[in-house]
UniProtKB/TrEMBL annotation:
<keyword id="KW-0540">Nuclease</keyword>
<dbReference type="GO" id="GO:0006289">
    <property type="term" value="P:nucleotide-excision repair"/>
</dbReference>
<dbReference type="GO" id="GO:0005739">
    <property type="term" value="C:mitochondrion"/>
</dbReference>
<keyword id="KW-0255">Endonuclease</keyword>
<feature type="compositionally biased region" description="Basic and acidic residues">
    <location>
        <begin position="392"/>
        <end position="403"/>
    </location>
</feature>
<dbReference type="InterPro" id="IPR036237">
    <property type="entry name" value="Xyl_isomerase-like_sf"/>
</dbReference>
<keyword id="KW-0378">Hydrolase</keyword>
<dbReference type="GO" id="GO:0004519">
    <property type="term" value="F:endonuclease activity"/>
</dbReference>
<dbReference type="GO" id="GO:0016787">
    <property type="term" value="F:hydrolase activity"/>
</dbReference>
<dbReference type="InterPro" id="IPR004601">
    <property type="entry name" value="UvdE"/>
</dbReference>
<keyword id="KW-0234">DNA repair</keyword>
<keyword id="KW-0228">DNA excision</keyword>
<keyword id="KW-0227">DNA damage</keyword>
<dbReference type="GO" id="GO:0043504">
    <property type="term" value="P:mitochondrial DNA repair"/>
</dbReference>
<feature type="region of interest" description="Disordered">
    <location>
        <begin position="388"/>
        <end position="422"/>
    </location>
</feature>
<dbReference type="GO" id="GO:0009411">
    <property type="term" value="P:response to UV"/>
</dbReference>
<dbReference type="GO" id="GO:0005634">
    <property type="term" value="C:nucleus"/>
</dbReference>
Length: 422
C-alpha cells in the first residue's frame, strides 16, 4: 500500500520492487492472477449472440506467454501525496503498455504495398484481430479500475480509404461483443480521429475525406452498441489564412454534409495552435455540438474567457444533449521552453487542474498511457492500485518533439508562431 497521507508534509518510503514477465514484441506484461471470481458460465454480455470464446483464447494465450517468460523486477518509486475532491473517471488511450495486447496496425509507409501484396481480406483480418484484443484490454482495464478508454483510430486499417475502404459488417458480431463487455462494466468508449480530419478545408476532396473518416468511426461505435457518451472528438483544423471563413465552412459541413448519426456523435475540441475555446464555443453553442475543453491546449492557446466560464458553458451543451461531459489533460515535457517543445505531451501528469469539476470524465493524454493514470491514482488516492501492474517512469524524459508534430512547417507570422495549412 502507499504511504499514509499527512497534512502539509510529504511522506516518503523505500521504493517498491515488483515482478513482471516480459513478452516478446512488447514492453512487459502483468503476470498477476485474476483476483475476480467468476462463474465459469459467466458470459461477456446478456446478448445470446455474444460468446466468450475469443476473449478466453486471448487470455489463455497471454497466460502461455507469461509462463514462458522470465520474471523481471521493477523498482517503483514513491509518489508525492496530494489532495483533491475529484472523484470522476480518468481515461487512457489506444494501448496498454504493461499488457501483451497491441493492436495490429499498418503503418503509413506500408499501406498501399500491404494491400497490393496481401489483399484487402488480410487487412480486414487485422481489424478482426484488433476487436479480439480490445476485449482483453477492456477486461484488464476493469480489473485495474480504469473505466474510460479511447479506442484507436487504427482499429480497421484503410476502412475510410477512398478506393480501398470497406464496411464493418463483416465484423459486426465481434464489435457487438466489445460493446457488450464495455456496457456490462459501465466503461466509456470514445474515439479521436486524427489531424487530417479537416471539416473546414476549402478543398471539397479534403472535406469528403474527413466525412469518410467520421463515418467509419461512427460505424465502429454504432456496431459496438455504444450509447451517446461514445463521442468522436475532432479539432477545428487549419485556419487556411481566414479563420472566420473556415469556421463558416465547418458550420456548413456539420449542418449540410455530415449524416445525422455522425453529427450526433461529433464533439469539437480547442487546440494549441489555431482554435481556442473562445473561437469554438460560439459555434458549438449555435449548432448544439458539445465542446471538449483541453487544459494543455488552453495554456498554449488561451482565451480571454475564464476557465470556469468555459467549463460552465461547455457543460451546458453536454447537459442539453444528455451526454456525460468530458475533458482532456496533458502537461508539457520537463524543460520544454519553446512553443513547439511545449506542445509535446509529457510521459505523465503531475497535477489535476484546480478548476476540474468533481464528477468529470478526464482523458489523460500522456505517453505512459495507463501508467500515467496509475500515477494519478496513487498521488491523489483515487483508486487502489495493483503494484504488479506498475512500471517505473522513464528516468531521463526528453523535451524534444517527436513524430508528426515535428514534421509540420512552422512559420512566424505577426509575431506569433503558427502552422502552415496543409
Amino acid at each position: 500500500m502507499d504511504a499514509p497521507r499527512r497534512s502539509g508534509r510529504l511522506t516518503l518510503k523505500a521504493p517498491l520492487t515488483v515482478s513482471a514477465a516480459p513478452v516478446p514484441g512488447t514492453a512487459t506484461t502483468n503476470n498477476r492472477p485474476d483476483k475476480r471470481k467468476r462463474d465459469k458460465d459467466d458470459d461477456i454480455s446478456d446478448s445470446p449472440e455474444s460468446t466468450t470464446e475469443d476473449f478466453k483464447q486471448n487470455r489463455d494465450s497471454l497466460k502461455v506467454l507469461q509462463k514462458k517468460s522470465k520474471p523481471v523486477q521493477y523498482l517503483i518509486p514513491d509518489v508525492e501525496k496530494k489532495e483533491t475532491t475529484f472523484r470522476g473517471r480518468l481515461g487512457e488511450y489506444d494501448v496498454i503498455l504493461s499488457v501483451a495486447v497491441h493492436l495490429q496496425q499498418v503503418t503509413l509507409v506500408l499501406r498501399l504495398d500491404s494491400i497490393k501484396k496481401n489483399g484487402i481480406e488480410w487487412v480486414k483480418g487485422l481489424g478482426k484481430k484488433n476487436t479480439e484484443d480490445l476485449l482483453v484490454m477492456i477486461q484488464w482495464n476493469e480489473d485495474n479500475n480504469i473505466r474510460f478508454l479511447r479506442v484507436s483510430s487504427e482499429m480497421f486499417p484503410f476502412a475510410s480509404h477512398e478506393i480501398y475502404g470497406y464496411s464493418l459488417e463483416y465484423c459486426a458480431q465481434s464489435l457487438a461483443r466489445v460493446g457488450s463487455l464495455a456496457n456490462k462494466y459501465g466503461h466509456r468508449l470514445t474515439v479521436h480521429p486524427g489531424q487530417y480530419t479537416q471539416l473546414g478545408s476549402p478543398k471539397p476532396e479534403v472535406v469528403q475525406s474527413a466525412v469518410r473518416e467520421l463515418v467509419y468511426h461512427c460505424e465502429m461505435l454504432d456496431r459496438m452498441g455504444v450509447g451517446v457518451d461514445g463521442v468522436m472528438v475532432v479539432h477545428g483544423g487549419g485556419k487556411y489564412e481566414d479563420k472566420s471563413a473556415t469556421l463558416a465552412r465547418i458550420k456548413k459541413t456539420i449542418n449540410q454534409i455530415l449524416p445525422l448519426n455522425v453529427r450526433n456523435r461529433l464533439v469539437l475540441e480547442n487546440d494549441e495552435m489555431c482554435y481556442s475555446a473562445e473561437d469554438l464555443l460560439p459555434l458549438c453553442e449555435e449548432l448544439d455540438v458539445p465542446f471538449i475543453f483541453d487544459y494543455h491546449h488552453h495554456n498554449l492557446n488561451p482565451s480571454s474567457i475564464p476557465i470556469s466560464a468555459i467549463i460552465q458553458r461547455a457543460n451546458a451543451i453536454f447537459m442539453r444533449r444528455g451526454i456525460k461531459p468530458k475533458q482532456h489533460l496533458s502537461e508539457p515535457r520537463p524543460g520544454a521552453i519553446t512553443l513547439m517543445e511545449r506542445r509535446a505531451h509529457a510521459n505523465r501528469c503531475e497535477n489535476l487542474p484546480p478548476e476540474l469539476p468533481d464528477d468529470m470524465d478526464l482523458m489523460i493524454e500522456a505517453k505512459d498511457k495507463e501508467q500515467a493514470v496509475f500515477h494519478l491514482y496513487r498521488m491523489y488516492n483515487l483508486h487502489p492500485v495493483d503494484y504488479a501492474s506498475l512500471r517505473p517512469p522513464e528516468e531521463n524524459e526528453t523535451k524534444e518533439t517527436k513524430g508528426r508534430k515535428s514534421n509540420k512547417r512552422a512559420r512566424t507570422q505577426a509575431g506569433k508562431l503558427s502552422i502552415e495549412d496543409e
